[in-house]
Design a protein that fits this description.
This protein has 540 residues and is α+β, with helices and mostly antiparallel strands. The protein has three domains: 219 residues, FAD/NAD(P)-binding domain (3-Layer(bba) Sandwich); 149 residues, D-Amino Acid Oxidase, Chain A, domain 2, CATH 3.30.9.10; 105 residues, Glutaredoxin (3-Layer(aba) Sandwich). 31% of the residues lie in helices and 25% in strands. The chain has 15 helices and 28 strands. The strands form six sheets. Strands 6, 7, 15, 16, 17, 18, 19 and 20 form an eight-stranded mixed beta sheet that branches. Strands 9-3-2-13-23-22 form a six-stranded mixed beta sheet. Strands 1-12-11-10 form a four-stranded mixed beta sheet. Helix 1 links the parallel strand 2 and strand 3. 47% of the residues are buried. One of its GO terms (molecular function) is FAD binding. Keywords: FAD, Flavoprotein, Monooxygenase, Oxidoreductase. It comes from Actinocrinis puniceicyclus. It holds the Pfam family FAD_binding_3.
């Protein structure tokens, strides 16, 4: 991939930069990536064309789901985020005012974060910026990317500052975290495949004087259209109402929607003047590639999802965490360079899964045909009555069901058919378990299950692995201090009663599962991961 770029006579060339990663874009995704790199010993350079972070700025991204909090726990900001926002217990569905069912995140057994966090994007960015500065990083505001091209061992970018001065930067890696209209994506010639818009929504943050529940996210289906209502705290609610071409996001629109789309004879309350409004058209798009040589795309630069379910920013943060540990390990010479090829493959599949579910939510909310609406309502009620709604949608919404292994049927099917630890699955509570083992957040962790009914075989496995594996590999023994970090016994249920060992990636996904009599999968996974200087010798 080579994009011709004219530097110009005024460009100030710099032969090399001490910062091995250039991140273009200082939104939540770019900032998470920077923090994740810094805590692993890689210094990124972060630039953004904006003049700075604006406190109090309203934004569309307000929902933070449990898996996102798990992933940023390692950077030390999860608790600060939960303490800065409004916590919800779950999601409730209605059709023409009649309750259809509810999904309770408080019943999630395999994560320490059992709420939906309502947190304005500007607050998320504020917390991330503070953490970035604490880690020794910074953002260069008023700095835009002008051009980029690739050389065999580096990316060459031209940056322009507010005063017009240009700088040529040569870096091993460049990451575009610059949003849906990504300059990086356009400069490297990656297509953005956009699906046709199918709905327009009015969005507004409005105070409501009434009895609208502030502990749940509300989805109202009705013959008059769909509406989502999310509590922001202090009796202010985020409204999302699908509208026609001539309708405007004014107080009267949101009041009428609350009166007519909830199906109640009495209103939930009086809607006050909006503190912020916007209109947007549902637009889904996916980049043709998430990696082009030494350039990567993350967040909205790589994909734009339907806003139903509020998964866009969360999915972007998952991109950042997935890429960060791999990029850090390769840059530091610890991991094989081929590892970076997995970023596109893993995240593309994950985005496809999330996109399918959010698009389905959008389509279900826009059903107007009575027969189809009746079928939808019957299906949701049946799923709620049988527990399928809770079991299926709680992990789906929270994104704790994400799976990076060999495909084994549908996303929902895996929840029922593969409850045990499998390669690619997520290990519950890893973020907190890792605190019992030390480590720098770069190397994968060796998780040793309980001895169970086979203590002799368990002891032999433990001795062999601890003798053979790298000394800096964090070890988590579930018979030790880590037991207190599994309060719901989710790990015990997942691992079963037989002694086993797992190799778990820094992002909490399982790389290998080995039974006591056959530890070879652990060795094989490490052979694939570690750079030649750190590759294991022949297993004993």
């Amino acid at each position: 991939m080579t994009v011709p770029a004219s530097v110009g006579t005024g460009a100030a060339a710099r032969p090399a930069t001490p910062d091995p990663v250039l991140i273009v874009g200082a939104g939540p995704v770019g900032l998470v990536l920077a923090c994740e790199l810094l805590r692993r010993g890689v210094q990124p350079r972060v630039v953004d064309r904006a003049p700075g972070q604006v406190q109090g700025r309203p934004s569309k991204a307000i929902l933070v789901w449990p898996r996102t909090l798990e992933l940023v726990h390692g950077s030390g900001i999860a608790e600060e985020m939960t303490g800065s926002g409004h916590l919800l217990d779950g999601v409730r569905f209605y059709s023409d005012g009649r309750p259809l069912g509810a999904v309770h995140l408080t019943r999630l057994a395999d994560t320490p974060y059992t709420n939906i966090l309502m947190l304005p994007q500007w607050k998320t960015e504020q917390i991330l910026l503070a953490r970035l500065h604490a880690l020794g990083g910074a953002v260069e505001w008023n700095t835009e990317l002008v051009s980029v091209r690739e050389e065999p061992d580096r990316a060459v970018a031209v940056l322009r500052r507010l005063d017009g001065a240009e700088e040529t930067v040569r870096v091993p890696w460049l990451v575009g975290a610059d949003g849906a209209h990504s300059t990086v994506r356009k400069l490297i010639g990656v297509p953005f495949n956009v699906t046709s818009p199918n709905a327009t929504f009015a969005v507004g943050d409005c105070p409501v004087d009434g009895d609208l529940d502030e502990r749940v996210l509300h989805y109202f289906y009705s013959r008059n259209g769909a509406m989502g209502v999310g509590p922001l705290g202090d009796r202010v609610f985020r409204f999302a109402v699908n509208i026609g071409p001539d309708e405007k996001p004014v107080r009267e629109l949101f009041q009428a929607a609350l009166d007519r789309r909830t199906g109640r004879t009495e209103t939930f309350g009086r809607v006050g003047d909006p503190v912020w409004t916007a209109v947007f058209t549902v637009r889904c798009a996916v980049a043709g590639r998430f990696r082009a040589g030494r350039v990567f795309l993350v967040g909205d630069a790589a994909h734009v999802l339907s806003p139903a379910g509020g998964q866009g920013m969360n999915t972007g943060i998952q991109d950042a965490v997935n890429l960060a540990w791999k990029l850090a390990g390769v840059q530091l010479g610890r991991f094989r360079a081929q590892l970076l090829d997995s970023y596109d493959r893993e995240r593309r599949e994950a985005v496809a899964q999330v996109s399918a579910s959010t698009s389905m939510q959008t389509r279900w909310g826009l059903i107007r045909t009575p027969a189809k609406a009746a079928a939808r309502d019957a299906l949701v009620r049946c799923a709620a009555a049988t527990g399928v709604l809770q079991r299926g949608l709680a992990p789906l919404f929270s994104q704790t069901d994400l799976y990076y292994g060999p495909q084994r049927g549908s996303r929902f099917g895996r929840m029922w058919r593969y409850p045990q630890a499998v390669v690619g699955g997520r290990l519950p509570y890893l973020a907190r378990l890792a605190g019992t083992a030390g480590g720098d957040g770069l190397m994968p962790a060796l998780v040793l299950s309980r001895a169970g009914a086979e203590p002799a075989r368990w002891s032999a496995l433990r001795r062999r692995l601890l003798a053979d594996l790298p000394a800096d590999l964090p070890v988590i023994e579930l018979d030790g201090a880590a037991r207190s970090q599994d309060p719901t016994a989710a790990l015990a249920d997942l691992l079963g009663s037989k002694p086993a060992a797992l190799l778990v990636r820094p992002d909490g996904h399982i790389s290998a599962v080995a039974e006591a009599h056959a530890p070879e999968p652990i060795y094989a996974a490490l052979q694939d991961l570690l750079a030649p200087a750190g590759v294991l010798g022949t297993a004993k």
